[in-house]
Amino acid sequence: MTTDIASIALPGGERIAKLGQGTWEMGERHASTQRRADEIAALREGVALGMTLIDTAEMYGDGATESLVGEALDGLREDVFLVSKVYPHNASRRGVERACEASLKRLGTDRLDLYLLHWRGGVPLEETVAGFEALVRAGKIRYWGVSNFDTEDMEELFAIPGGEACAMNQVLYNVARRGPEFDLLPWSAQQGVPVMAYSPVDHARLPRRSPLDDIAASHGVSVYQVALAWVLREPGVCAIPKAGRIEHVRDNRAALDLVLSAQDHAALDAYFKPPRAKRALEML
Ligand code: NAP
Which Pfam families does this chain map to (predicted)? Predict the structure, then answer.
């Protein structure tokens, strides 16, 4: 396996790894020293395997996760496309600047590659966009985007001045939660906004008995790998599975090379039905 990895384009043309790594629930304060070491080793292995897109947030572990990511990226920062997220209640014009500074400090870096509004809150979008744009001008972030925005939120964002500079929408999307296929994925493709699929293996809560089992057995892989390969089939979508164990990271990387057959897709569509009508965007 090489570190050459499939990529997707940001609106400006820069390419990022199609398969990255999530960090939610990593580095939590009550975790054992062994678990912390495993998580750091897992992230570093993922980067070595080309999964250089790393997603974190100020929310995770109240900042403890960003500190762990900073430690894991020691000597690797330049190899990584680093994403963090601001709480909606910090997303005012000045609030994003303060929150960003705190994230940069915990992460031990001078810039984020992508900064996302974690979900929509009470602050007017105009203010958040102005704050993000100021951070871009100051060189603290390279791109900004949003998370948990449904189609109508994206339309609203694109209607405000500067809103169309949004470089990403990170949403819940996996084989068991296919709502975005009805309108959000087509809208995003049409507007050229890439989508980052979070919880791509449904937070390890995929159904216990489903066609995933037979498909996994027929390819000699795990159900997690089938679920990941399924998400990654979609152009314009990248995915950020979280794996705190090195063996899971290796399995996830291998999923990028797994090609599901038309028969596999038909079996999955029969069980995990594609949406026939609008479903409100789900959140974890
Ligand atoms: P996920 O990636 O779907 O699932 C993570 C779980 O699956 C962990 O328990 C992990 O176990 C297990 N796992 C991963 N790969 C595996 C494999 N190959 N074999 C067996 N088990 C495997 O769920 P997630 O953490 O909710 O989502 C991914 C990332 O998306 C998050 O970490 C976070 O960065 C982001 N996220 C964003 C939002 C948002 O609102 N924007 C919400 C949720 C998540 P181990 O850890 O033991 O390896």
Answer: Aldo_ket_red
Q: How far is the CA of 204 from the centre of ligand 1 (A)?
A: 7
Q: Which pair of tokens denotes residue 200?
A: 């791509």
Ligand 1 lined by 205 (C-beta under 6 Å)? no
For 167-206, how does the pLDDT look when each residue is reduced to its tens digit (9 = 90+)?
Answer: 999 999 999 999 999 999 999 999 999 999 999 999 999 9
Give 129-164 pLDDT, tens digit per residue.
999 999 999 999 999 999 999 999 999 999 999 999
Cβ atoms < 10 Å from Cβ of 258:
19
What's at 119, amino acid-wise?
W
The alpha-carbon radius of gyration of the chain (Å, integer) is: 18
Distances (CA, A) of 77 to 44, 82, 202: 11, 8, 28
Domain spans in the chain, listed from the N-terminal domain onward: 15-271
Q: How many residues does the chain have?
A: 284
Does pTM top 0.85 for this prediction? yes
CB burial of 135-156 (b: ≥16 within 10 Å; e: otherwise) equals beeeebbbbbbbbbbbbebbee
Q: What is the mean pLDDT of residues 44-52?
A: 98
Report which protein residue has its CA nearest ligand 1's atom 2.
241
Give distance in angstroms: CA of 138 to centre of ligand 1.
Answer: 32
On whether the CB atoms of residues 113 and 140 are closer than 8 A, the answer is: no
How much distance in Å is there from the Cα of 152 to the middle of ligand 1?
A: 27
Collapse the DSSP code of 37 into the 3-class scheme (helix H, G, I; strand E, B; otherwise coil) and give the result: helix
74 CA to centre of ligand 1 in angstroms:
22
